[in-house]
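Budget justification aside, the reviewers requested a transparent look at the raw inputs and outputs of the sequence design task funded under Objective 1. We therefore reproduce one unedited record. The lines immediately below are the structure tokens for a 265-residue chain.
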């Protein structure tokens, strides 16, 4: 009976490991769908930036124009722009549409490539998160009306980051909330618990740095961010700095104009 009990327990543990691995693999696949679909949407973005004790708030209408994003300012410090400034921003938008529509193919390629590089950096970090951590299923919850699995994430022994940005993952731990129906990342929270140095120890990301991401469904198959917060503590050549970026996203809409909302491939 003891041998049988050991075998049953071992089998149960192995099944749990497979379940967690399957959750992560399916969630990574869902994120891939989201990333590919994101350029097909316009949205409103509200940015709150805090540096040196000073806070600024700007709200943008984010549009796709000929293969890359354009941010049209629509509010400052949560106050709509005066009529004259609204007209100025609309004029700038129309001028940018005309400029991009008429630009040389080489200039367009450089602009779109820059946009795609920035998108790829963010995408690579999400992919690396799945590789950088060991995940442990610790429970189930309801979040924003969705039933989710809750997983602890701790640094994986032997992980080797593929980029400088991904190096910070080696000093982080966190939690992941995965939707049980769609395998989407409903929420991610992570914090730096040991400092990570860059560039021959010239720069360091410090303990207390925190990242939070929340996502929401925008269609039957696509989820996109609704809130992102980065509370960053760094030191450069021994001088400490702290900054907070808090971004919220709303009013996602499929692009309606092929010319103004041309997705990059």
């Amino acid at each position: 009976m003891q041998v049988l009990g050991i075998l049953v327990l071992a089998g149960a543990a192995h099944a749990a490991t497979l379940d967690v691995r399957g959750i992560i693999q399916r969630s990574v696949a869902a994120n891939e769908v989201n990333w590919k679909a994101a350029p097909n949407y316009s949205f409103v973005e509200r940015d709150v930036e805090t540096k040196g004790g000073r806070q600024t708030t700007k709200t943008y209408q984010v549009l796709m124009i000929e293969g890359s994003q354009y941010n049209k300012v629509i509010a400052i410090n949560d106050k709509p722009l005066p009529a004259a400034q609204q007209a100025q921003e609309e004029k700038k938008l129309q001028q940018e549409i005309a400029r991009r529509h008429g630009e040389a193919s080489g200039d367009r390629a450089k602009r779109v490539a820059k946009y795609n590089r920035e998108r790829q950096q963010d995408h690579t970090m999400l992919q690396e998160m799945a590789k950088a951590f060991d995940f442990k299923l610790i429970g189930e919850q309801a979040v924003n009306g969705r039933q989710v699995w809750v997983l602890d994430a701790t640094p994986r022994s032997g992980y080797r980051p593929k980029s400088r940005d991904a190096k910070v993952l080696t000093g982080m731990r966190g939690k992941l909330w995965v939707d049980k129906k769609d395998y989407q990342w409903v929420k991610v929270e992570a914090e730096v618990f040991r400092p990570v140095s860059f560039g021959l120890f010239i720069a360091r990301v410090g303990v207390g740095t925190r990242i939070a991401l929340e996502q929401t469904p925008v269609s039957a198959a696509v989820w996109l961010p609704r809130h992102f917060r980065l509370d960053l503590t760094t030191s450069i050549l021994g001088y400490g700095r702290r900054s907070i970026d808090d971004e919220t996203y709303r009013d996602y809409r499929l692009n309606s104009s092929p010319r103004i909302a041309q997705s990059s491939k």
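The chain has a mean pLDDT of 87. The first strand starts at residue 41 and ends at 51. Computational costs for records of this kind are itemized in the attached budget.
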